[in-house]
Amino acid sequence: FTGTPISSADKDTRAIFGEYIDIYDMTQAVADRATRPVYYESRVVQLKLDDDVLKEIDEEYDLLADNADETTISKSKKELSRMESILGNDQTIDSLVKDIINHYENNRENLLTGKAMVVAYSRDIAVKIYKRMLELRPDWKSKVKIVMTGSNKDPEEWHSLTGNKAYREKLATEFKDDDSNFKIAIVRDMWLTGFDVPSLSTMYVYKPMKGHNLMQAIARVNRVFQDKEGGLVVDYIGIASALKRAMHDYTKSDQENYGDPNIATKAYPKFMDALDSCRSIFHGFDYSGFFYSSDLEKGKLIMGGVNYVIDITHQERDVPDHQRAQFVFTREAQILKQALSLCSSLVTQKDRMEAGYFVAVKTLLNRITEKGSGSRLSLKEINHQINELLKQSVKTEGVVSLFADKDVKFSLFDPDFLNEIKNMKEKNVSLELLKRLLNDEIKVYRRTNIVKSEEFSEKVKKSLNNYINGLITNEEVIEELMKFAEELKKAREAGKSLGLTIEELAFYDALCRPEAIRDFYDNKELVAIARDLTDTLRKSVSIDWRKKESARAGIRRAVKRLLRHYKYPPDALPDAVDMVLSQAELMADNLTAEDYVRPSTD
Questions:
Q1: Would you say the pTM of this structure is higher than 0.70?
Q2: At what angle do helices 427-446 and 450-468 cross, to 10 degrees?
Q3: Backbone angles phi, psi at 190, to 5 degrees
Q4: Distance (Å, rounded) from C-alpha 182 to C-alpha 205?
Q5: May I ask the CATH architecture of the domain 7-260?
Q6: 3-state DSSP assignment of residue 553
Q7: What pairs with residue 185 in β-bridges?
Q8: Domain spans of the chain?
Q9: Axis-axis angle for helices 325-343, 267-281 (nearest 10)
Q10: pLDDT digits (tens, 9 = 90+) for 470-480
Q11: Who contacts 187 (Cβ-Cβ below 8 Å, separation ≥6)?
């Protein structure tokens, strides 16, 4: 939403422009995922501000907002100067900055990209906040910057902080860069409208704002970014009533959906419900050691948790997929993670650690069992993900190593790694890893070798079905998959012994598919046919061969012509040519533009 005012004192949009043609409100924008919800957390009590002072600030801003006469405005400015001396008091600024640092480091720093904005009451107070922040965190010089325009009347020391237009543009580019060190922007008015940083998720407010000015400001944290649950506005000045009043300027659906964005009544109950659901699923598995163990032990308990979820899911053979333990746990753990990203300051240390455990289990579970991702498993990636989750949710340091110090891709052809998988205590995880690795390798074959991919796919499917139906044990299916891994390794190396490339070997396998074929041809003949088929296909395939029937027919004719030259297939095996044609089409699909051999222009 834009934050354009709808109706306020002496500013009735409809009276001037007529009735609305259409309304696109916050509710619809969030439903469409064009924006994310904005949540609210009050921390006014941390500053011990007097209620009378807050009330006076509220009233003075009301006077200014109502476009009062010059005498009233002049009087109001004097009052606001008095307010600035109260709000800019060194002791108050010290309390404010300490609380912001504490809240940021413990709840927001490791969330998404860690971008946050501090909205200061005045330029003077912005500078005070900046200076005190660096006094408390000297190593934050590249992390925290002031963004405001300068003036000739400014103290000399301010000039290096405010800079010129080019400097502020540089800061804007840097803040929009998700990977930059610039994480916290201290502003007064700049960047509160029309400045979008999608990953920005936190706004610390130390400035009274009302109506559309407030709505436009908080819209800085409602942009869509990755799995961002919503933006969080942390209030140090008492804008709760102003926020509610501003909502009344918007549509009825917004008042119903966003009338109470308080994390204490919205996000926190959602967090506790999801936590209880995860606890219920894990009833029967002891993960209590996670609260006091070393990082290595935490890693083992995470792996054990994955093993447990897979185990109870496997037992639920007659339960619909959308109700099975793995599906329910993944859903609830995701809700847990998203709610925690908003209300972590309200959550106890124990509950936060417990949530961190469940989220880490979910991450590893998804990484091991996800289907159709096309991604190769990496121990380094898994260790990094879990370490980041622990830092975010548990505040522990150090890498959680799940497989000692291995820092390599999971390889189906690494005997040491396969041996580690085979000997894992968590047999369900061992099975899932082997299944993923085999399926990944079969996918590779599917792009090049139709015969081997079908052969191994059927073998894996048969073994897994036997396991699911209880015909073989967990240990037996792992043993079978280990044998398939060895067979795949030998199949991969078979081409080298024959002196064939990957493409030539695929044709060789297709030619040899009929079991009786060797009664008619010796091995040298089959190798020669495979090489000629590969060469012929490279010369015949055009970029648009799939789009033109004439091109497809030409490929088939070229293949059949070459096979006839070698008198393949024999009369006794007429269907053998179909497999070769299927392999030819598969190879044609996977040839890149650089592979095409164009006719010579000589």
A1: no
A2: 160
A3: -65, 150
A4: 19
A5: 3-Layer(aba) Sandwich (3.40)
A6: helix
A7: 117, 145
A8: 7-260, 270-409, 429-498, 502-595
A9: 150
A10: 777 777 877 87
A11: 117, 118, 119, 120, 126, 146, 147, 148
